[in-house]
Design brief:
- Helix content is 95%, strand content 0%.
- By secondary structure, it is mainly alpha-helical.
- It has one domain.
- The radius of gyration is 30 Å and the shape is rod-shaped.
Length: 73
């Protein structure tokens, strides 16, 4: 019976190691996905900030310049 117990323990250890390995790989993939998302998010934020600057400039300019800029669009 000792041989079967040893075989069962070895199988259990190999299975646990496989689960841990898959868990580590999934964590690495999630970290990589977050980095990609952060890059695209930073670009979107930069574009939105530029649009807000344009809107602020239009709102704070005199009405004549506002009319000219709207007509230019």
């Amino acid at each position: 019976m000792h041989v079967f117990e040893a075989a069962a323990i070895i199988v259990a250890i190999v299975m646990i190691a496989g689960v841990i390995n898959n868990w580590i790989k999934s964590k690495q993939q999630q970290a990589s996905a977050r980095t990609d998302m952060d890059d695209s998010t930073a670009e979107r934020i930069q574009n939105l900030e530029e649009r807000v600057r344009v809107l602020e400039r239009i709102l704070t300019d005199k009405s004549n310049r506002l009319k000219d800029e709207i007509d230019a669009l």
